Amino acid sequence: MLIGLGLTVGNIIGGKLADKSMAATLIGVFISMAVISTVLTWTSVALIPTEITLFLWATACFAAVPALQVNVVTYGKAAPNLVSTLNIGAFNIGNALGAWVGGSVIAHGFGLTSVPLAAAALAVLALLVTLITFRQRGNPELAPATN
Question: pTM surpassing 0.90?
């Protein structure tokens, strides 16, 4: 229940933040995801701290959704339905990748408490991609699509 509540709260907060600054929202969200995932490594040994951390994690994760959706529609405004579909597909690939990375961490004997560290590493990777993407925005080849 707390994760579902966190997802809802994150979506609302993320939408409001994305209206102010898409780049700052995504950068802040990915930093938050990395920090909260790292914290989960230590809080996962007790129920209440784990629940609080998972609520915060869910809030951070879904705060990215509005900014990512607006970003792809902005750059693909000539075909908004297509880019929206591709964006959802990218979310599903991310879900599968996260499950595969988490399973690999466990399969290689690192233990359950190492899974959040792997999630933090993926959030840092997303942060780096975001920084590169927004840095290249001045590149005319990356300009939004037009009709």
Answer: no
